[in-house]
Amino acid sequence: MCPETARSLNPSFARGGPARNRGFPVESAAVGWQHGRMVDDPHLPILLVMGLAVVLGTAGARVFQRFRIPQVVGYIVIGVALGVTGFQVINADTAERLRPFNYFALGMIGFMIGGELHRDVFRRYGRQLVAVMVAEGLGSFAVVAAAGSVVVYLLTGQPALSLALGLLLGAISSATAPAATVDVLWEYKTRGPLTTTVFALVALDDGLALLLFAVASSVAAGLLQHSDLPLASALIQAVYELAGAVALGVLAGLILNWALRRLHERGKALAFILGALALVIGLARLLHLDLILAAMALGATLTNLAPRRSHRAFELVESFSAPIYALFFVMVGARLDVLGMPAWVWGLALVYVAGRSGGKMLGAWAGARWTGAADAVRRNLGLCLFSQAGVAIGLAILSADRFAGAAPDAPFALDAVIISVVTASTFLVQLFGPSCVKWAVTRAGEVGLNITEEDLAATYRARDLAETPVAFREDTPLAEVLGVMAETEALAYPVTDEDGTLTGVITMEDFRKSFQAQRISHWLLADDVMQTPPDPAIADLPLPEAMDLMRDQGLDYLPVVDGPDTRRLTGLLQRHGVRRTLASEILRRSQLADAAENAPAPARSAP
């Protein structure tokens, strides 16, 4: 394609066009002082935007969950609607001003991922993880670089430009976004060999991406004759970013562990953890280190130094994280300018997505097969590595900064094309990537195996765990009541009328009092010794709400009725019975996960 034809496709992408960085805002906000007061820009206040993003993003996620679509997709779609593609409630200036918040959210995600990286994981899977990481990273790099170079050559007819752009896109494609992937794993409470492998890979993948980018950018600069920076210097810079980030995170982890041993108040511990995380992120930015890796190192250090004590720290951060994640993913969607790019850029983005997805699937399968990984890992791992976001966009921005003005004979602005392709592909993979992760962990049978008692209780209704009660009619003689109570272990015995409607309850306290009336028990009835029934639980009431109702009335039992009007007795909830059932189910799921993780690996095929 001739330069004139390429420029005619969209002037914004032609050299010297007005929208050099369209697709990822880099403008700064206009803020000043007037008459002693700060004057903001004419757009909506930041706090109002943040509130809208969290509320609407959470509502959108809830709607998507009803259709069995991961919540992160709902966040991103709401972000697209609010952002530069949709109603522009979140404009370029607002997105830029919230960039520090995005850094903090990425750091929090990295910290939580680090909490999953126990030393026994690397002791057991270390060789396998390294092999799979290299295979899927290089697979994506090779396929995208080759396919991208061919497509750009067909558009421009310039081999050096085509190879340079292909190498840059290939290196960027090797990065995997931890945020969206891990959010799905947390949402569906997964556990097993596939989950363990994914957690470790998304934590390590960015390191390989940085090394590949260092090599690719140096080679591309040589092809375009745009830089005299030698390859060795680029590699040294990449090693500095990675090693420095690890050192910073480990040092901060040692200090945080020392502090948490002396902090026992929940609020102060949370404040110290978040403060330490913010310091690590800020120092990583100041020292030009990889902030996600630094936060991961912080979390990994903490969880390996004190596994039991650090569990409380990660629970505190997780309880604080829901609105952070919602706002972060809404902002990801808000930045995506999906309508401002020409068709040929979308075509190149589709090639990029297809090549990246195919390369990662092929590489993950080959690496897992070569190392004898579990069948669930071999069949499903590639599906969990599609999402890309922060690191890929960050590398795209670095490319745009470094290659601005490069290749003056090119029919388009190289920096704008790189950012636009990565942005468009990010939009695509962020929409289908989380659903692929859900499909993969469901096929692997790992959904719901990492569940707490509270999580499990939320899946039940009151009727599900209500026991068939030993109930008495109002006219049952007390002597018969005493005989039945002596042979059973229930805490309470509902009393009903002839229609089965709850009218009262006899407790163990009433049982003790009845001994004083043994001489007249032959003519006393259940109606004479029962007490007014407590507020019962409706059969369809969620189990956590029923347990709250039980606790609020100071009881260890609660009658269950079919409806608020009829109040016909259907069962009896007993606290110890509920706990026994939940504990038994959690143990069963934990044993299933342990069995999957401890299953012998299949024999490795001969190469």
Taken from the alpha-carbon principal axes, the silhouette is elongated
Strand residues, percent: 5-15%
Number of helices: 24
Q: Tell me the structural class.
A: mainly alpha
Descriptors for this entry?
CBS-domain, mainly alpha, 8 strands, 24 helices, disordered N terminus, 607 residues, three-stranded mixed β-sheet, single chain, Na+/H+ antiporter like fold
Explain how this protein is built.
By secondary structure, the protein is mainly alpha-helical. Helices cover about 65% and strands about 5% of the residues. It has two domains: about 5 and about 95-450, Na+/H+ antiporter like fold (Up-down Bundle); about 455-585, CBS-domain, CATH 3.10.580.10. The chain has 24 helices and eight strands. The strands form three sheets. The protein has a three-stranded mixed β-sheet with strand order 3-4-5. Strand 4 (about 490-495) and strand 5 form a beta hairpin. The protein is elongated, with a radius of gyration of 30 Å. About 45% of the residues are buried.
